[in-house]
Amino acid sequence: MPEAATTEFWRDIKPIGNPFKPGVLPEVHIPNAAIDDDRYYVPFTETVSSRPLWISPTQNRWCDILLAKKAGLVNRHYHPHQVFAYTISGKWGYLEHDWTATAGDFVYETPGESHTLVAYDHPDPMRVFFIVSGPLMWLDEDGNVNGHFDVHDYIGLCRAHYEKIGMGADHVTKLFR
Question: Is 68:122 a contact under the CB 8 Å cutoff?
């Protein structure tokens, strides 16, 4: 039950007695998701890290907070599926587009889009909440596919990081839904 209501008009409404259907996993609630504790951020590139928030191995999807504390780069890639982004702080953009995102900006990436993500030097770190429908297809300088990164690669990266820092490889499994 959430915090008890005091003056809210709905304070006397009773919650649903059994909100989950059989076999349904509970929701994921992560207080302070954009935490400053670097242990939760998995190095994604040399300059950008990712905090996993929700992972669906069966749907090849994940939600994360991408973090860059200074100028950063996620190399050229192509998305065959849609991606959603909400900027929490900092400044970022794609070399291929004419906009730059700052705190409060929302971005919808259409399926079939290729781009190069860059984070700018800014007083606040770049923190962007992403909903990714994988995979990312890595591209060379000519736009040819030279690798991929899907939810299973992401899980492996997270497991290795959490094991290395002593949180345990299974730390990430509690985010699976």
Answer: no
Q: In the block, which residue shows the tokens 């492996």?
A: 156
State yes or no: pLDDT of 137 exceeds 70. Answer: yes
Confirm whether pTM is higher than 0.85.
yes
User: What's the CA gap between 49 and 41, in Å, rounded?
Assistant: 5
Q: Is the omega angle on the peptide bond into residue 31 within 30 degrees of 0, that is, cis?
A: no
- Beta-ladder partners of 115: 77
Q: What is the pLDDT of residues 100-129, one digit of tens each?
A: 999 999 999 999 999 999 999 999 999 999
pLDDT digits (tens, 9 = 90+) for 158-175: 999 999 999 999 999 999
Could you say which DSSP state residue 40 is in? G
Supply φ then ψ for residue 44, to 5 degrees: -100, -45
Pure H helices in the chain: 151-164
Check if the beta carbon of residue 141 is closer than 8 Å to that of residue 19. no
Say which residue, 70 or 25, is predicted with more confidence: 70
Alpha carbon distance 116, 84 (integer Å): 16
Is residue 164 helix, strand or coil? helix
